[in-house]
Amino acid sequence: MGYEGKRVIDILLNVPNIIGYVRVSLYIWGIWQAHYDGYVIAASMYFLNCVLDAADGFAARGLDQCSKFGAIFDVILDVVQMTMWKSVLCNLYPEYSFFIMFHAGLTIFGEWIHRHSCEVRSSHTHFMSDSSNPILRYYYATRLGHDFMVWSYWCFWLMLYITKYTNGPIVPGIDVGIWQLLLWLSIPCAINRFVILLAKIYTSINVMCAIDLEVKNTYNLRSKKSH
């Protein structure tokens, strides 16, 4: 194996990416269990997957092992995991399956065009904290706030699944199951995340079109000069 091949292996087998491979195994096992009503194992795999999603980011920054492959790999894993999870929810909530899958498709489109717009802007991260869009500036203002929104969003989809089987232990004083309560509390964050997704799509489309116009104007200017 040559030097270049060794470098590729080093990237593929760095700690954050190994965590990613573990995540793949976990959510495949979790989705399998979910399709056969093994909701305890499925929910546990989902939660552990979310924890590892946070861990790989800390590992990448802490060990100085950030890579373009890792960044793309992480985003793809998130989107694939949530799309597969939503397919399970379609079986549990057939009356809402259209809306669930519409959201899944819109998320795939939004995350892809957002990531690509960051790449063409020569950005090394998908955090558009410098965006002219006030919604995205608010969303990416602090890592703590961003992480809270992400975890609340994950909580919404997890509780939507769990409450189909059980509402959990009753919370004293309000006679509501703990899982049902967490579902209600996470709904505003899920709505907020949908608005942010639309803002990502809108901003990313504008960024891509602005770059197209800039390239075209530069080309026309050079053409005029050549004549």
Topology:
Layout (H helix, E strand, L loop, with lengths): L2 H10 L2 H21 L3 H24 L5 H25 L4 H24 L13 H6 L3 H20 L7 E2 L4 E2 H49 L1
Antiparallel strand pairs: 1-2
Helix pairs in contact: 2-3, 2-4, 3-7, 4-5, 5-8, 7-8
What strand order characterises the main sheet? 1-2
The Cα radius of gyration reads 21 Å
What's the total number of strands? 2
The proportion of strand residues reads under 5%
Helix proportion range:
over 70%
Stretches where pLDDT falls below 50 for ≥5 residues? 1-5, 123-127
Mean of residue pLDDT values? 85
> What's the total helix number?
8
Structural class: mainly alpha
Distance between the termini: 52 Å
Shape summary:
globular
Q: How are helices and strands ordered from N to C?
A: HHHHHHHEEH
Largest sheet descriptor: 2 strands, antiparallel
Descriptive report:
There is one protein chain. Helix content is 79%, strand content 2%. It is mainly α and 227 residues long. Helix 2 packs antiparallel against helix 3, helix 3 packs antiparallel against helix 7 and helix 7 packs across helix 8. The chain starts with a helix and ends with a helix.
Task: Write a concise synopsis of the structure shown.
The chain is mainly α and 227 residues long. The protein has helices at residues 3-12, 15-35, 39-62, 68-92, 97-120, 134-139, 143-162, 178-226; strands at 170-171, 176-177.
